[in-house]
Sequence to fold (267 residues):
Amino acid sequence: MSHTARDPFAGDYPTPRRVGLAAPLRWLRAGFMDLRRAPLQSMFHGVMLAGMGWLLVRNAGSAAIGLALLTGFLLVGPLLATGLYAISRALEGGGTPRFRQSLLVWRENLTSFSFFGAILALLLAVWIRVSMVVVALFFDGPPPQAGHLVRDVLASPNGWAFAATYAAAGFGFAVLVFSASVVSLPLLLDRPRADTMTAIVTSLRVLGANPAPLLLWAALIVGLTAIGFLTWYLGLIVLLPVIGHATWHAYRELVEPAPARPDGTPH
Fold:
């Protein structure tokens, strides 16, 4: 059972709630139920996301860029899953999800979604540059090709040092993006008048109120996405929709509902 956290700034920003450690499992269960209720639309988004990841990594060429895009997939994932949030919103209200609406739902808050997308794109560009620098530090000569990276890392005397350094750098970026986006995109969808900075600040405050449950939630997202990649992207077709739907339910539990305006829309 969740309860509202004490927050002196509740009047300025959406109010965070506290949840228990078992909450992420509840969100995944709800996400799976949404997948079952709208399988075709959900799986379409899963196919598109998995196909996008496959094309990006396959055509990267350089191992540095390929690895950055592979790990960077988690950085831009929250934005790419916006259509899945719309499906869950429709199911939650007892309606029938509309395919066209799930594709164009970002237009409901175009300015904020665009600004948030620009932030994620900038972070991804920086991460690609960092990835190239880290690879260059540990490999002499031309950078290894994407298909030979594992072989080259295992053959290199500095392979473990490279893996540790790359993981540390990636962890820093992942923490930054997760902290800023844990509820940001569902909030922007749910509250069309909200701006990007309000969404980011709310995500940070939600994380501050629920560090342990959201650490588990982040670990589950990374673990499930890794399983999807290890199954040659096929697992992503199912797992990404489940994560996307679950993220909507996470937002619903983590943020106090907005009071309705006289016209019935949220503040």
